[in-house]
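Could you help me review a protein record that somebody else here produced? Do not assume that whoever made the record got everything right. The record follows directly below this note.
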Amino acid sequence: MKKKLEQLNQKIESTRASLNKLVSEKGGIMTDDTVLGLSEELDDLIVQQTRCKILLEK
């Protein structure tokens, strides 16, 4: 489970970096489909990360 959490952390950082880069390139416009897709992916990853953390605390 710790390994999965580590992988999720890396994926979150990578996705967040891609999202920040895209948003800065678009001048802060958040309506681009790619931006919205990355944003949704990031949300899903954060949910998975939270579930992992909760399971590890038990």
